[in-house]
Amino acid sequence: MATTSSTSYFERLQDFVSENKKAVLIGSAAAVLAVGGAVYYASTSRGPGGDLEKGKSRDKKKSSKKRKTVNDADGPLLEEIKPKVVEVEEDARLSPEEIAGMPVEERTKLAGTLKTRGNALYQNRKFQQAVDMYTRAIEVATKPEPVYYSNRAACYMNMSPPKYELVVQDCDEALRADTNYVKALNRRANALEALSRYEEALRDFTAATILDKFQNESAAQAVERVLKKIAVEKAAAVLATREPRLPSFTFISAYFAAFRPRPLPTLPENPSTGDNTLILALQALEAADYAHAVSLVNEAIDQGVSWETGKAEALNLRGTFKFLMGDVSGAKEDLYESVKIFPSLTQSWVKIASVHMEQGEGTKAFECFEQAIKHNPQDPDIYYHRGQVLFITNEFKEAADNYTKSSELDDTFVFSHIQLAVAQYKMDELARSMATFRRTMTNFPQRSEPQNYYGELLLDQQRFQDAVDKFERAVELERAKPPPMNVLPLVNKGLAIFQWKQDIGAAERCCEEALQIDPGCEPAVATLAQLSLQQGKIDRAVEMFQRQAELARSEPELVNALTYQYASMAQLEFTRNYPAMAEQLAQIARSMAM
Ligand SMILES: *[C@@H]1O[C@H](CO)[C@@H](O)[C@H](O)[C@H]1NC(C)=O
Ligand SMILES: *[C@@H]1O[C@H](CO)[C@@H](O)[C@H](O)[C@H]1NC(C)=O
């Protein structure tokens, strides 16, 4: 079975300001809720309030004492309870004919009296009797009174066991009569959550939170809680049914770029069909045609590779693709098998180390590097990758030493230099780090990566103009070489412009261009989603989060994308159900983006 967290170890290495990037996006866009949070400040007008709203603020303090008599602080409001219990003259239940024969005024008065008695019974925890009283009030009233239904729902909620279905039914009625009835929304939401009807619960909690201008913290927390339940549930369903597949081009090429290129293995004298297929697979890999490389290497192994080195290479490649597709244990098997056949295959050792890291087995990872060094002490790849592992465990000094060692053995590998500069930056050796970057840019004038990562460093220091210049140079260099193009500098440029000038349009154009070139570029999709959210273009945000979820490789990524997706969907639904507030929300979203 494919495990869920496959490639996060490499992701963390992909670019060092990724943490930064997230902070930027989360800081300004935040959860969807933040958009609504400002509703509180922006609006003073309210929808039809009715006695409930007035009662709430007026009786807040006084109410706290009395409310304690009932477990559910959310029961019928005090104001409704305060008046003395009025005896109903006719205690017997009236027949429909008798009710129909009464004048309207009298019916309304009687209904009010019945409700008041219901409130008193509720207060004394006589929930079934209270229900009967509210039912009678509902029968007598000449029009649907939301309060009667909502109060009866409160009784059902307090019964043991609670009658959630009936709570939902009554709240449906209450909300049909008054869509802005926050208490009924909260009550129905709680019942729906208890019934595991999470999406509906989310709809109600979201509406309650926004309508209540974010004053009710427990409702806001409920939104988060239910969102999490939904996202985890949906993610599990997606992962259980999804076919394993390759990540985006950008991602795979970044992965393979972390290894120095090696010559093709020499074929034996009389190569078998499988041997030739393996060479084709390795050639496809060189040509960055990953889809072909996968099917060819599988084919080669099925056909049978005739010589030992070839077998080890084939298993190394198949294991690598398994790893990239999230099958960590399958990858481990292939890679271990390959070093069993050919113990000095450094690449396999290094990749096994990363599988161990992925599984949180740091000690084993370092043992793999030792094994690799034992067989091949002069292999620069080993030191580079050991540096990477040290880097993500924040051992920057040792990481820097290992990068340096890697460059001493072979100084033509651009990433050893870049990572050294980044490690120096992490150790607060700013001047040295920038010097390393400048030297690397000079020594690798045709490579976009030093420009791109130096740009990230500059962005981290808020040197916006310089950062954008570097990203543009990186884009230029990428365009100058034969395709496919690495689009990360383009996304970075968009982010930089956004941080610098709050120019959302320009940032979006960068991301969209990146997506045209690499439709699977996850950072571009994620950025576009957040930018849409900031502009209150919620439907577009939903679309982007959906896409982000489709592209997600690991479970945490998927849960994250789904959380945003469902939060946005709930907000979209809110704007449909409460069109009067939609424009207001959109305005606030726009002002929040500034
Ligand atoms: C606040 O929200 C919670 C959760 O939905 C709800 O139970 C409670 O009644 C709400 N409080 C008020 C004062 O509306
Ligand atoms: C590389 O890292 C290891 C720790 O895993 C450390 O012992 C060693 O000194 C570092 N430097 C070199 C040059 O290998």
Automatic annotation (TrEMBL):
A GO MF term: protein transmembrane transporter activity
Record field: compositional bias (Basic residues): 57-68
UniProt entry keywords in alphabetical sequence: Coiled coil, Membrane, Mitochondrion, Mitochondrion outer membrane, Repeat, TPR repeat, Transmembrane, Transmembrane helix
Pfam families: TPR_11, TPR_16, TPR_19
Coiled-coil region(s): 181-208
Main location (coarse class): mitochondrion
Gene Ontology terms describing biological process: protein import into mitochondrial matrix; protein insertion into mitochondrial inner membrane
Transmembrane parts of this sequence: 23-42
Annotated localization: Mitochondrion outer membrane
Residue segments, region Disordered: 44-76
Keyword Transmembrane helix: yes
GO cellular component: mitochondrial outer membrane
InterPro entries, per the entry: TPR-like_helical_dom_sf, TPR_rpt
Gene3D superfamilies: Tetratricopeptide repeat domain
Membrane topology: Single-pass membrane protein
Alphabetical list of PROSITE patterns matching this protein: TPR (PS50005)
Placement of TPR repeats on the sequence: 111-144, 346-379, 380-413, 448-481
Family: Belongs to the Tom70 family.
The protein, known as: ADP/ATP carrier receptor
